[in-house]
Fold this sequence. Notes:
- By secondary structure, this protein is an alpha/beta fold.
- It has helices at about 5-15, 20, 30-45, 55-65, 75-90, 90-105, 115-130, 135-140; strands spanning about 1-5, 25-30, 70, 110.
- It has a four-stranded parallel sheet.
Amino acid sequence: xxxxxxxxxxxxxxxxxxxxxxxxxxxxxxxxxxxxxxxxxxxxxxxxxxxxxxxxxxxxxxxxxxxxxxxxxxxxxxxxxxxxxxxxxxxxxxxxxxxxxxxxxxxxxxxxxxxxxxxxxxxxxxxxxxxxxxxxxxxxx
Length: 141
């Protein structure tokens, strides 16, 4: 299982990538809104698809079949997301995918090269700065 960014999911929905359909993915629940927005843009603004609803239906089918598992927001995920965004200057809504992947020890799939670079840097940072239990508890409060 890996964490899927919205860009990767949209690409999979639009192009029917076999890799997208053959694997299981984890994503923050924010993904629904980001994917919906991307489909809206593809339909109403770019006119690349005649209607976004069939793609949105496929997204919910993936969720119903547990091939795409949505993770609700949590205090810890929000905190780590904010810290990554603060360190890197990247958008919070991009960093939530990075934080989720790091928290679960998973790889991140994205089409955003900057997001990939940040993820790799944060992975290295996590390996070298993993706090002990008492330090981690103190940081949470």
